[in-house]
Specification:
Elements lengths: L5 E6 L7 H8 L13 E6 L9 E3 L2 E12 L2 H19 L5 H15 L4 E12 L4 E5 L3 H14 L5 E3 L6 H11 L6 E11 L6 E5 L6 H8 L2 E10 L3 E6 L4 E6 L1 H4 L8 H26 L8
Antiparallel strand pairs: 1-6, 1-7, 2-4, 3-4, 4-5, 5-6, 8-9, 8-10, 10-11, 11-12
Helix pairs in contact: 2-3, 5-6
Length: 299
């Protein structure tokens, strides 16, 4: 259980929810299989095979949103629609109009959906109610928004908000590079994206490239700002910090992986991995927030 791409949210410390109650509320919205005419179905699944929608370990909770989606390629629908249209034109000696073509496409889609293959994926969520964290493992905005939407339906009025810091990640990362000095506890790696503040979409990307020296500082002096920066925390976790305060390409280094090799069975291994992952990420966030000026105050 190792998260890869983090989306960070804050929960009110006085939320007052417990794992048992949360599990009951999620159980009202379990994942159901797609119906014959459904393209997608979303709902909660068991993080482990124990019949519980909330997997609780060391005061941290693990949730899993299941998504089942029909795979019906547009090219298949288009080809079948064109065949139907060609048959009509041949048999009736007339051209199929635009509206009729749209109706044909809709009819073909409805016919093919029951025979379409389905794909299932899972979006994972770690909740630390003691310290007020909700962390998603989601590589895209769409998956994060999908999770929050389904969670909000299950828990109306949940006190949840995205994490905001006093310094924007862009300003902080640019300052670190300009000064050639990473914040305490961190080192700068060799991946960077710079964007021009004056020219839209003017971007420079460095991969596996030394970032110290005059070249980077010259770009910054010319008005470019850092939008992505590869970093390592405490020689334990590597990651890429983005301008949206997302943590991507999270990599747990060997020193942590070695600690997870003492489990006696799959269940114990799962819990050990989750405990190590959540504990290390919590410590990383404890150091990252001060490096970004602390958490922004909310009214």
């Amino acid at each position: 259980m190792w998260f890869r791409n983090l989306r960070l949210y804050r929960l009110s410390r006085d939320w007052g929810m417990d794992a048992a109650r949360l599990g009951e509320m999620l159980a009202v919205h379990p994942l159901a299989r797609c119906g014959s005419q459904d393209m997608v179905s979303r709902g909660w699944v068991y993080p482990r095979f124990d019949g519980e929608f909330v997997h609780a370990v060391n005061r941290c909770w693990l949730l899993a949103l299941g998504v089942e989606q029909k795979l019906l390629p547009a090219s298949v629908v288009r080809e079948a629609t064109q065949e139907r249209a060609a048959k009509i034109e041949a048999e009736q000696g007339r051209k199929v109009g635009r509206k009729e073509l749209r109706d044909l496409r809709d009819h073909v889609t409805q016919e093919l959906m029951p025979r379409a293959f389905t794909r299932r994926r899972t979006t994972w969520c770690w909740i630390d109610p003691v310290h007020g964290w909700l962390v998603l493992d989601a590589g895209s905005d769409a998956k994060a928004e999908e999770f929050i939407e389904v969670l909000s339906r299950a828990l109306p009025g949940m006190p949840l908000r995205p994490l905001h810091t006093q310094l924007s990640p862009t300003a902080a990362m640019t300052d670190w590079l300009a000064a050639s000095e990473a914040p305490a506890g961190f080192t700068v790696d060799q991946d960077l994206e710079l964007r021009s503040a004056a020219q839209a979409n003017a971007t420079i990307r460095y991969a596996h490239h030394a970032l110290e020296g005059e070249e980077i500082r010259a770009h910054i002096a010319a008005g470019k700002v850092a939008t992505k920066l590869g970093m390592t925390w405490a020689d334990r976790i590597s990651f890429v910090l983005t301008e949206k305060l997302q943590i991507k390409r999270l990599g747990f280094l060997d020193i942590i992986r070695e600690q997870a090799e003492n489990a006696e069975n799959a269940d114990e291994q799962f819990d050990l991995d989750f405990t190590l992952m959540s504990g290390e990420v919590a410590r990383l966030l404890d150091d990252l927030l001060p490096a970004l000026g602390g958490e922004a105050k909310t009214e």
